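S.,

Sequence below, as promised.
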Amino acid sequence: MNGIGDVILAARQAAGITQQELREALGVTQAALSRYENNLRTPDEETLAKLGEALGLSADFLNHSFRLQGAIAADAHMRRQKSTKASDWKRMEARLNLVRMQSSYLFERLPMHAENHVPTFDPDSVGPAEAAAHVRAQWRLPIGPVRNLVRWIESAGVLVIEEDFGTRRMDGLSQWASEYPVILLNATLPTDRKRLTLAHELGHLVLHSNYADLDMEEQANQFAAEFLMPERVISPSLGGISLGKLVDLKREWGVSMQALFERAYRLGKVSTEDRLKFYRAMNARGWKTSEPGSDELAPEQASLAASIGENLHANGLTQDEIAGLVGQASGRNSHAFAPIQRGLRIVS
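The prediction came back faster than expected:
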């Protein structure tokens, strides 16, 4: 059942507020708050006002019909990153839910018309590499490296929201928000890892909107590899590979040395023994965790959400009015769509 409880729970967890802290702010019992969060009881107007103040959300937003959703492949992400705390995944998934709710709330009032769109495929019928090729073709990407990946993704109406996750062991999460997806991206990542994460999450959106199995992470990896490094184009460059050549290829393709080497390995350009030697060499130089050349790559900076806010502001809306459009309480102007006063594009 949809209801206010889903919004309360997502907003509370995203803000890192405990049940005890929230119930004390509301002046209610633990049992009452639990009933609110489980959609078993509707708060009265006074409690609703207190909820809005505590969570920084408007009463109308709190009463909107939203439903909590899991991030695409979140369980698969967790299995891969076993050392990451479950509480961190829970907090960031709640944050993703809140951003998705706010974007849906906004687009009900301000429809967006994107230049491209994100197609979806059944991976049982269309393989990850084939799906990546389809997306590249539909978006009319030039042959070769993808320049400014985040702009291409945003051209399809995908809201890319960059935030510090508080851990380097989580890269990104994604969900569909009605017609338009949301990707939550760890802002602390180096550019090459950001790009791979964006392509990986795009793979989940394309392949796993209505499909899930234990191979989802590998499928998203295959999609990202073909999307960023198309086999027909990059294959001739992957022969006679060396560390020096990998640094040069990294500058050209905007992906890590490790991603390039894995691409060479998957395409049969290097052997298993070569792979072992490569990772030994990377570890010996301390490059496994901090590769050279990452700071030379052109930064990937998300801009669509902020440009929406800027466009609204340029058309006469105040900061409070913009905040209201995304469900923020009056005076709470810190949100993904807050205008930053610079010339960015917006499709509206």
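Residues 342-348 have pLDDT under 50 and may be disordered.

Coffee later?
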